[in-house]
């Protein structure tokens, strides 16, 4: 098949959507399909021509530059600066639709796979274009409640676009039953569950921590729904507060939608005895540093309040790492409590503190959970099943 992956982000840009898109394209190409990635270059100028090139895996990557920035400049005049940047998502949709209308026939595209976030896929649902399959691994309107986002003119536009995309899609992919059920509240279109794209690592790369275990790891951007407040309150438990145990949080900063300050600043103000003392934040570490953190961490913590999936749980399993994960994390369905993960209620700081204390005191349990998780994920997320 000839498959177009329409995505707002692609490497060298970082983030979940970028990583997802690259893994999907690479796996499709490795399995004998032809993958075309259609994306934009936010750092380009309005004078730079669109570019097309193949990467080392044979994936054809199209960067929309001038065509995107022309639309971006046009839509910006209708919105105040700040917020969710609705002009950005409108411009992506317009530029991608124009490119596809001009090129899809000679590329013989069979299907367009587009991410849900931002709603640009609504522009691609056109009778002249191939069928559109929405990758529903998280939309703004699904997360806004948990992140306490204030509604404004930009958020209303983005939310409307996302819901239009869900209503009119030819099909929707979900990567967890939890996300599937949530999406079904907003559409009558078919919502399929499918294994999330992941690249298996070499089993020989696994190493046991070579030092006394004294830290756990959280990986993810600083958002309310990721549970940093719950984690800070859990670490104030006397059993943990009076120990040398710390948690390293690796990820990018975000803005708190209530105060307007950055999340790192708000957490430092709200938890002065914890943030940068018991929780050490590492802002957007590169892959080398992140792999070091995975290898040296005694276990991985996923304290999310609600999430459509969470690919970090899968990456942790590939590293043979035990995980503490909340039941409202979409990917928790892949695991079984006490057999290959420690699953706790969401938004429960006491349950999180108890789980941390229990795993810290049980090295054999940590070994069993990590090994069992690796075996389970390796079977469930083989390349053949994903494709």
Strand content: 15-25%
Widest sheet, order of strands = 3-4-2-1-5-6-7-8
Gross morphology? globular
Q: Quaternary state, please?
A: single chain
Order of helices and strands: EHEEEHHEEHHEHEEHHEHEHEHEEHHH
Strands, count: 14
Counting helices, strands and paired strands, the structural category is alpha/beta
Low-confidence spans: pLDDT under 50, at least 5 residues?
none
Largest sheet: 8 strands, mixed
| Count of DSSP-assigned helices | 14
Mean pLDDT: 92
**CA gyration radius, whole angstroms:** 21 Å
Helix content percent band: 25-40%
Terminal residue distance: 11 Å
Compact description:
By secondary structure, the chain is α/β, with parallel strands linked by helices.
In words, what does this structure look like?
- With 387 residues, this protein is of the alpha/beta class.
- The protein has 14 helices and 14 strands.
- Helix 3 (86-107) packs parallel to helix 5 (153-168) and helix 11 crosses helix 13.
- The chain is globular and about 65 Å long.
Question: Descriptors for this entry?
Answer:
single chain, about 375 residues, alpha/beta, three-stranded parallel beta sheet, 14 helices, 14 strands
Topology (elements, then pairings):
Blueprint: E1 2-6, H1 16-30, E2 34-40, E3 51-54, E4 60-64, H2 66-76, H3 86-107, E5 111-115, E6 132-135, H4 140-143, H5 153-168, E7 171-174, H6 177-183, E8 191-193, E9 215-219, H7 228-235, H8 238-241, E10 246-251, H9 263-270, E11 279-283, H10 287-296, E12 300-302, H11 311-318, E13 323-326, E14 342-344, H12 349-360, H13 363-380, H14 383-386
Parallel strand pairs: 1-2, 1-5, 2-4, 5-6, 6-7, 7-8, 9-10, 10-11, 12-13, 13-14
Antiparallel strand pairs: 3-4
């Amino acid at each position: 098949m000839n498959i177009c992956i329409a995505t707002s982000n692609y490497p060298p840009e970082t983030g979940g959507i970028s990583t997802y898109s690259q893994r999907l394209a690479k796996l499709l190409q490795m399995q004998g399909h032809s993958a075309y990635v259609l994306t934009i270059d936010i750092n380009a100028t309005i004078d730079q021509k669109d570019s097309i090139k193949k990467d080392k895996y044979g994936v054809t990557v199209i960067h929309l530059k001038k065509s995107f920035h022309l639309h971006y400049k046009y839509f910006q005049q209708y919105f105040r600066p700040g917020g969710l940047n609705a002009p950005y998502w409108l411009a992506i949709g317009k530029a991608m639709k124009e490119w596809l209308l001009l090129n899809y026939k000679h590329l013989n595209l069979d299907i367009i796979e587009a991410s849900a976030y931002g709603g640009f896929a609504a522009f691609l649902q056109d009778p002249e274009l191939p069928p559109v399959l929405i990758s529903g691994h998280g939309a703004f309107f699904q997360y806004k409640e948990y992140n306490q986002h204030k509604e404004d003119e930009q958020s209303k536009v983005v939310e409307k676009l996302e819901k239009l995309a869900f209503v009119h899609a030819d099909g929707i992919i979900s990567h967890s039953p939890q996300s599937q059920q949530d999406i079904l509240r907003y559409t009558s279109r078919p919502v399929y569950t499918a294994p999330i794209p992941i690249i298996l690592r070499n089993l020989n790369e696994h190493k046991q921590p070579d030092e006394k275990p004294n830290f756990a790891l959280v990986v993810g951007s600083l958002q309310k729904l990721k549970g940093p407040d719950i984690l800070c309150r859990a670490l104030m438990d006397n059993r943990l507060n009076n120990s040398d145990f710390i948690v390293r949080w690796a990820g990018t900063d975000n803005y708190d939608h209530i105060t307007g300050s950055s999340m790192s600043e708000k957490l430092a103000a709200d938890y002065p005895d914890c943030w940068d003392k018991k929780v050490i934040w590492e802002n957007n570490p590169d892959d080398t540093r992140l792999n070091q953190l995975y290898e040296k961490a005694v276990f991985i913590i996923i304290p999310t309040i609600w999430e459509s999936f969470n690919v970090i749980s899968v990456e942790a399993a590939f590293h043979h790492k035990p995980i503490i994960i909340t039941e409202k994390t979409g990917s928790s369905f892949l695991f079984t409590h006490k057999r290959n993960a420690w699953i706790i209620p969401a938004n429960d700081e006491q349950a999180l503190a108890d789980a941390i204390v229990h795993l810290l005191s049980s090295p054999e349990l940590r070994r069993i959970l990590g090994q069992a998780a690796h075996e389970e994920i390796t079977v469930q997320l083989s390349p053949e099943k994903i494709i």
